[in-house]
Amino acid sequence: MNIRNRVLSTAIASALAVGVAQAQEPCECANDADESHSRMSGSAATSQSSDDRASDDRDMRSDSRSARADNRKSRNDDRNARGSKAGENILTEEQYDEIYSRGMSAEDLLDADVVDAEGDIMGEVEDLIVGPDDNRLIGMVVETGGFLEIGDSHLLYPFDKAQIMSSEKVQVPNLDGEQVEELSLYQEIEGKDLGSRWRVTELIGSFAYAGGEPYGRIEDVVVDKSGDIMAVVVEPDVMYEDYDAYYAWPYAGYYYDPVAGIYDWPIGHDHVFGLEPFEPL
Hints:
There is one protein chain. With 281 residues, the chain is an alpha+beta fold. It is built from 6 helices and 14 strands. The strands form 2 sheets. Strands 1, 9, 10, 11, 12, 13 and 14 form a 7-stranded mixed sheet that branches. Strands 2, 3, 4, 5, 6, 7 and 8 form a 7-stranded mixed sheet that branches. The radius of gyration is 44 Å and the shape is elongated. The protein starts with a helix and ends in a 9-residue tail after the last helix.
């Protein structure tokens, strides 16, 4: 083979090699395109999965909020129902007039002088005993001072044996030594022992709730001379705008929990905030 033929053969072989290489390049591009498409498809699937989870989370949070809202509405409806019933017991204008005309401050009655039939001071009122089911006072704790030579002691008088002269003076019958022994603090009064009665000094200072919601503090108890409890006097907590006023609430023994120290009037706040302020006695 001469030189011309070898050159020609070499040129033809090179051309064929270049053609084969160019023919293979589209395949590599196609592979790259396939890989890119696969990655895009995977990203799209991942994005879709994340969107689905986010949507599920939003739905769950929404359901949870709806459930809480339903629970709040149920509790509010229950309180409003009880409040409407209790609202029937809101003190009327006539009852307010009765309180102002014949009511007495139980707090003022504490420390009142206790005198005998001759008017001699024998001690002072230290506490008043409440019968939970009676809505009235059933006893009076008297601290004596050297009375009948028995020294300082405490006696429990049935309330119906005492005569309330004023918020500063109470009269009780004359006693002899044997009668004093019958006035034990542990005696039953009208069939009520220590476990079924409480003290006014416990009730005063208790927390006042309205329909299960915190409201204020009981500052006083209004009673009449016969011992009937006419109302409790409540001062709102400072969280309320009217915290510097007083309000008269009706009294019922079953509103009070002496263990927890809570007086809970089952009435909605809308009723409470509509009450007229009470002027302390």
